[in-house]
Amino acid sequence: MIADYDQIMMRDSIVGLSTYHGSRTSHAIFSNRISYFFDWHGTSMTIDIECSASLVLLHQAVQQLRMGISRISIAGGANLIMDSKCFIFLSSLNRLSPDRRFRMWDADAKGYARGEGIGAVVLKTLSSALEDGGDIESLIRETGRAQDGKTQGITS
């Protein structure tokens, strides 16, 4: 996770950081803040592994349902670009596409293009959804996760 908000707070704080700064910006406690606010019970976790975090979180949510640990799982992800410093850093490493186009697995790829978005899915087992009479938008047949070990890139 790139901690734009935390870095902005540290940089722009005039009178010092509040006593709540650590819990307000901690990635480890973020999911628990949401559970606390909505009074949700059960597993609450933040996955911090860069680009594949939302897919790994979806995998974990599906596993919770399949193992019977949860009756409902919510998996969400967000990326908000709040500061230009990350762009400057990534640009200095030649990681960003100079034409702002993302050509994944293409011979003409010259970097990637960053984007913003927030999304979440509410998951139930098919039997629970049918029992509850809810609308079924799609089915997840399988999920997976991986780390490639010692390869060209370090991310999962």
From TrEMBL:
Residues 1-156 form the Ketosynthase family 3 (KS3) domain. This is Ketosynthase family 3 (KS3) domain-containing protein. CDD domains: PKS. Gene3D superfamilies: 3.40.47.10. The keyword Transferase applies. It holds the Pfam family ketoacyl-synt. It comes from the Eukaryota. Keywords: Phosphopantetheine, Phosphoprotein, Transferase. GO terms for biological process: fatty acid biosynthetic process; secondary metabolite biosynthetic process. One of its GO terms (molecular function) is fatty acid synthase activity. InterPro entries: Ketoacyl_synth_N (IPR014030), PKS_Beta-ketoAc_synthase_dom (IPR020841), PKS_NRPS_Biosynth_Enz (IPR050091), Thiolase-like (IPR016039). PANTHER family: FATTY ACID SYNTHASE, HYBRID PKS-NRPS SYNTHETASE APDA. It comes from Sclerotinia nivalis.
